[in-house]
Structure formats: structure tokens, C-alpha cells
Amino acid sequence: MTDSLRRPSPTTTTTTPIAEEFRRFRSEVGGDDLGLRDMRRSGSLELSIGSMPASEDPLRTPENFPIELERLEGPISAVEIPHRRGETRFRYFLDGTQKTLPIGRIGLVPVVVALSVAGILHRNERGEAALLSGSLRQSQAWVFPLYTGSYELDRIRDWLEGRGHTVIDPIAPTGSLPDNYDALVQHYGRLIELSQRTSATLRAGLETDLIRTWAEEVSPDDADAWLVVDGKLRQNVPNAIGLVKSLQMQHLAGAEAVALFNLPEGHRTTAFRYVTRSDATPGIWDDGETPTENRTMWYQRFWDSSGLDARHALVRIEAPHEVATPEEIDRIAGWLVSERLPRATADPRWPTLLYPIHYLEAILKRRLAALTAGWPS
């Protein structure tokens, strides 16, 4: 069995602590001369007021709701999960984290640095857990509009690219400018939102690369072991599942939705997939995914929710398309029941947080802390 990822990731980058990089910028370019208003004390966008605001009218019913589904086990209903205490084949756990830091502002345009770290935790047969050798991925990118004609922003871009940094336009990351580009450049709040979304996309890219590398290099040598991805699976990978804790997208309506939110502890819903449609258009699938990347999904509840929010301890599982029978689904759901213990009760998200993921997050956050050492808090 391999205990490391041999192939280096093309997305892995060497990063300098951001405080040191900012000092060099001040020394070599002179932010005051460019009219850069300091924003370093504002903290990360993930913790700021108005973080990731909804761009759409909250009173508008989402398009294609309820989503057209293929029900693999009949109408959506509750199923008790059979399991043996302590039985699990999950041996690998993948997660990523990000920190999006405002550096300063030129007029209405925020200049932001996006830091991302991702990795895989491996738990051996004795229950000992450690970061999988070679699995740590990290990236650093600077984010601000690049096509404004602003001398000050062009000067910052030239300095950063001259030092080998990646600079990304949050409005036009591919270089294709939307018709309302000039209007968006004047909208400070929307630029903050787009910058944070860009950071999330970069983190997702690290995680996707890790999943693919794990499937190619680790899984073939450890065929009985499974991987838990904290979040969406994003692609069909054998022996891997995604565990989605944030249930922003509601797949069900009516009596089936009631069955979901009434789900007892230790139960799952019957499984479903999106209906594959030849006329499918981008956006109607979860996160814009295509029908060819369809996964098998179900919900399950880890802990009792009596007296609590209907979503308490409720998670959505995304399994590869090849997982199709009730027996396979029950087996995976049962492993997850075993993974509830020990509980990460020091974290307020513990009802849906597996302890290995909690442990991995601590490792990744220490790495982020090293990258942000000396930065104003």
C-alpha cells in the first residue's frame, strides 16, 4: 500500500508569508504613492460583514424547483441504516480551507490576496492519523480587476507578475469581459463578493487535483479503502464520497421534503440522481455540473434533532454513479454512522463534522497561520 502521493501537483506553489510580501511591495512600489488605502485590519472576507451576499432576489423561487430527479429506490422516504459498530472502510479524508485577505483599495477597487491550502489525512489500520505524504497543496493569488485602464492598478499588477505571482481578475477570470464590466468595477460590494468567490474556486481547484491524484496513485494500491471529501464530490471517483454539510440547495418538495426534514437519527433517505436531460443548460445542475458527471445522492441524519432546527445533524452524501443498489448505499451509510465517533465537540459544527476532518482542518489552519504570520488580526 502506498503512503504518499508521488506526482507533484501542478497547482502547488511556493508561497511567501503575505506580511513579508506586503513589506516588499511597500518598499519597492510605495503603496502611498499609488493612493492605496490600507485595509489590512479588516480581517479575512470569510469572517467579514456581508460575506458572500446573495446576488439574487431571496424572494424569487429558484428556477427548475423542485429539481427533476431519478428515484433509485422509489419515492423519497426514511430508511433505517443497518450498521455494525466501528465498521468502516474510510481511511482517507480530504479537505481544504481558504483565507481571503483585503490588502488595500484603489478608489472603489479592493486589492485582495487569496490563500488556499488542501490536503489528505490518512488513518492506518491502528487508527493512527497523519497527513498523507506529498498531499499538501497550497496556492496564493492576488485578485483585482485588470482591465480598468487604471495606472495604479496596472503598476501593482506589473510588480506582482514580475515577482512571479498569479493575478486574477474576479470579474473576468478567463479574460472574457462581460458587457457590464465597467459597471461592476464601480460596485465595491460586488467586487468583494466576486473576490471571495474567486478564492473559493481556487481552493476547489486544489481539492479537485487532490481527488484526481488520489484516484490515480493511492487508491489502486489500497483498493479496499475509501476516501471522504469534505464537501461536494465534484466528479465520479471510485471509492470516494462527498459529505455536504451546508444544505443550501433543496432537492425535494412537498411530502418528500417533509420526509427529509423529519428524518430520525440513524436513518437515511432513499437515494436519487438528477435526471439526465439532452436539453440541459448550465446552471440547472448543482454548481453547474453536467449530466455526464451525475452522482448517486442521499441524505442521512447523524444525531437526534428533537427540539432543534430541521437541518440539525443532516448531511447529503454524494457517491459515484456506479453506487446504485440499496445494499451498496446501506453499506456506505453504515460506515458513516461508525465515523460519528469520536465527536469533535470543541467545534460548533460537530453534529455534521467527522473527527478526522476536524483533525485535518487543524493541520491546514496551522499552515494558513504560517502564511499569514505577522498580518494584522
Structural write-up:
The chain has two domains: 1-64 and 99-213 and 372-377, no CATH class; 66-89 and 224-340, no CATH class. The chain is α+β, with helices and mostly antiparallel strands and 377 residues long. Helices cover 26% and strands 21% of the residues. Strands 1, 4, 5, 6, 7, 8, 9, 10, 13 and 14 form a ten-stranded mixed beta sheet that branches. A two-stranded antiparallel ribbon has the order 2-12. The radius of gyration is 22 Å and the shape is globular. The protein has helices spanning 18-28, 151-162, 181-185, 188-218, 254-261, 326-338, 355-371; strands spanning 37-38, 69-71, 78-80, 90-106, 109-123, 129-131, 137-143, 166-168, 226-230, 240-244, 267-269, 272-274, 296-301, 314-319.
Provide a concise account of the structure shown:
By secondary structure, this protein is an alpha+beta fold. It is 26% helix and 21% strand.
Helix content: 25-40%
Q: Tell me, briefly, the overall form.
A: globular
* Overall radius of gyration: 22 Å
Low-confidence stretches: 7-13, 278-288
- Give the SSE string: HEEEEEEEHEHHEEHEEEEHH
Q: Mean pLDDT score, rounded? A: 87
**Largest sheet features:** 10 strands, mixed
Q: How many β-strand stretches? A: 14
